[in-house]
């Protein structure tokens, strides 16, 4: 462990039991931070003395009788991936064994009663993922404003902190269930998506390799590590957050991100019946778990879905060993069975249900898996850019033909916007007619075809008098450039490319769907 001497402002390394008492700093990173390499420079002492955050921390530590401080920005050599990984896995314990933690709030101005001014609860420090463990791990936490004037301590500000953070266990967080702990992080942000998981490892008492680049898989690994050490089923008491992810009917057992636990702060665990229950086990068939299953159907009873008994629906209610509040109903999730197998998906993951009162079904050993990867693929959207064609006297229409050949949904949008199509898989057509030909009975029309086959998009052009005469070869390779000669001798050219969503289409296209732009010209 590397510590900064508060007197000399020089770095020193310590190992094992030789680590001296130290104070530790919690802060929000700014645009310009003093790093490890800055302090190693020959003018490192001057750099540290000129930084109000570092020098203020050292000054306060000396005032309180501590010779050393630990500051993440300058005590970790982040150019070393091995050192960074060790530091992230050790950080919770470093905050836990520190004699005092100083929280420096650079965005809270000095005030006679800073704890009750509007700036304190609005501080960005309360919105960051890493600062959650920095609040929970140390026994003694002191808050300071931007001028290093004390605001209060975790003990004296307990009521204010509980109100700001919704944390009900500031001094005994280990007594909270998994869902509660996750809910505390649900609305916090991290710069890198992997840190949504890494910043929670210490709170759940797990360690795992740090793999920047794995993305959201880090949070999945975190949950898999947690269930190796705990049988707390509240880890499954989450609701999918649809603000950033398209609604999906099926999912696996685990949440996709901490935000899925945003509404789980009132979950409490219940006593598990004394019986032989198999431990959780991750297998190549999915998560092996024992749950009580109640065959069920879903009935829409405004304003919510209600459960009813239905033996052959393929859906089951699975009761979890947790409940809503202290005296609330037991929490349940809905599972969908794959045929007659022992494999299940989670159904309607955006909803948590109340378990039926009379729940006497025996425990069943099942496997919960996530849906096939292609199930997670959202719709593909095609916006048609044909202004040059329209200027040449063409208009568009959706052809009426053999409906068994065509699929897709054209969006009815405001006049002046480009035609918009959404597809999951299938083939769709857009008909182009020359306006003057509609009256002269001249057949100078053409069709633009758009296809999505196994997730691969393609386009085609066809000169034909009827959509029923257009072949639909789903086995051909999709192409993204095509040109055809019209009966009048002109050439129509179409191109397909991925593109950003235009403002006019933003309200129609969900965040995680794919957008293609199809440009058509006549030369």
Molecular structure report:
It comes from Hyaloscypha variabilis (strain UAMH 11265 / GT02V1 / F) (Meliniomyces variabilis). Residues 22-110 form the Heterokaryon incompatibility domain. This is HET-domain-containing protein. The chain has 523 residues and is α+β, with helices and mostly antiparallel strands. It folds into three domains: 2-174, no CATH class; 268-371, no CATH class; 377-522, Mutm (Fpg) Protein, Chain: A, domain 2 (Sandwich). The protein is 19% helix and 29% strand. It is built from 13 helices and 27 strands. It has helices at residues 36-40, 44-50, 52-64, 72-75, 81-97, 130-136, 158-165, 178-185, 195-198, 201-204, 217-227, 387-391, 437-440, and strands spanning 2-5, 11-13, 23-27, 68-70, 100-104, 141-144, 150-153, 250-251, 267-269, 281-283, 286-301, 304-309, 315-324, 330-337, 343-347, 353-354, 363-368, 380-385, 394-397, 409-411, 420-423, 426-434, 446-453, 456-462, 481-485, 491-498, 514-522. Strands 2-1-4-3-5-6-7 form a seven-stranded mixed beta sheet, with helices on both faces. A six-stranded mixed beta sheet has the order 20-21-18-27-26-25. Strands 11-13-14-15-17 form a five-stranded mixed barrel. Strand 13 and strand 14 form a beta hairpin. The chain is globular and about 90 Å long. The model has no long low-confidence stretch (mean pLDDT 86).
